[in-house]
Amino acid sequence: MSKPGRKQLMREHHPENIARRLDKSRRPNHLSDAVLGAIDGCVTTFAIVSGAYGAGFSPVVVLVMGVANLLADGVSMAVSNFEAVHAQQRLVDKARRTEELHIELVPDGEREEIRQIFSNKGFSGEILDNIVSTVTANRRLWIETMLQEEYGLGDIPPNPVASAWWTFSAFVCIGMVPLIPFLFRSLSMPRQFVFSTLLAGLMFFLIGLTKGWVFESSLLRAGIRTFALGLFAAAVAFMVGKLLGTFL
């Protein structure tokens, strides 16, 4: 990825551009939710395809098992992510209520906490006094500072519904791709499996490319890494299905 030049960085750090950028309301980033759902959806579905093909099941069985598992696991993933993010939301709300109560009952003690927090950052003397006065003069800033510094909690409120939706959508959309060849009855079972493998590999690679593009890392390395991890999981499922089909 090309790095921004000095002129571009100077434009981005002009006071007006900085103010505009900081003035934007910060929202939760759901990339991790989408990536989680996409990878798990593709791995789960292709694992069903691989295991069923290895066991010698018919295309109809593969399709039925794949769709049923896709929807059931998609809902399960969405619910699990909803609960996880909701628990994080409750943790933030509880910490905020705790700090509001402490500021109400022992304001001097909370001011001392602010003082020690910024003292540990290297501030002292009159500068430290001004920081403490400024932070504690604004109740909202005071609470948000304590949440970040004492509890390590971010100031972006989590959204469990949005997280669940992104996980489910990515899970179903990407997870459906390996099943597409089994919709074409004119193809033989081996060809269906080959096309399914190619599509699954392409999805893994594209997911990796997306991560590499977002995080501005090597696109090829990110794509190959996700591709290898996804196909490894599918290969395990294929071998299990093959062994079970042979012995049972």
Helix content: over 70%
Beginning-to-end CA distance, first to last residue: 51 Å
Q: Helix/strand/pairing class, anyone?
A: mainly alpha
Element order, helices and strands? HHHHHHHHHH
- Average pLDDT number: 82
Show unreliable segments.
none
Number of helices, where a helix is a run of at least 4 consecutive DSSP H or I residues: 10
| Percent of residues in β-strands | under 5%
Number of strand elements: 0
The Cα radius of gyration reads: 26 Å
Main sheet record:
none
Overall geometric form: elongated
Q: Please identify the oligomeric state.
A: single chain
Structure write-up:
By secondary structure, the protein is mostly helical. It has one domain. The model has no long low-confidence stretch (mean pLDDT 82). Helix 5 crosses helix 6.
Question: What's the layout of helices and strands?
Answer:
Elements lengths: L5 H7 L2 H9 L7 H25 L3 H47 L1 H13 L5 H13 L1 H12 L9 H17 L12 H26 L4 H29 L1
Helix pairs in contact: 3-4, 3-8, 3-9, 3-10, 4-5, 4-7, 4-8, 5-6, 9-10
Please give a handful of descriptors for the protein shown.
248 residues
